[in-house]
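## retry 2 of 3
previous attempt timed out at serialization; input unchanged, resubmitting
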Amino acid sequence: MKEEYEHTKTINSVEYIMIIIVLLAILIILVPALSKIIYNVSQNASMTSTQGIIDSVKAYYTDMNLKNEVALPFKVVFNKDGYNFYEVGQKVNYKRELNIKTSGKLPKSGSVQINIDGTITVKNLTFGHFKCNQKNGQEIICDNK
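## retry succeeded, writing output
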């Protein structure tokens, strides 16, 4: 009777070890796939946020241009404290309260510039671990830092 109990106990241990091995194999397969999905979602979110910032800067420039003449190139430089405005390379402080409105978060750093020919240049807009760039209206490219 005792031998039968030890034999069953050994079989149960082997079964448990096999279950653990199968679960580990499944995790080894799933973790890279889940990491890739998370990376792609974060990258797409950064691209969408960049497009939102570009649209906000364009709207802001248009609004300022309706109130008074704004010189080109018009640039907004983002930093951890907010953002600063530049016209023709000179920092500008406007008299009225200025807010760039976005539905998401502001970037931690980088800049958006409206060039003299009306094209947009985006340099190193940083959202989380992604830096986004765009030159002269081309496709937005967001890469991991």
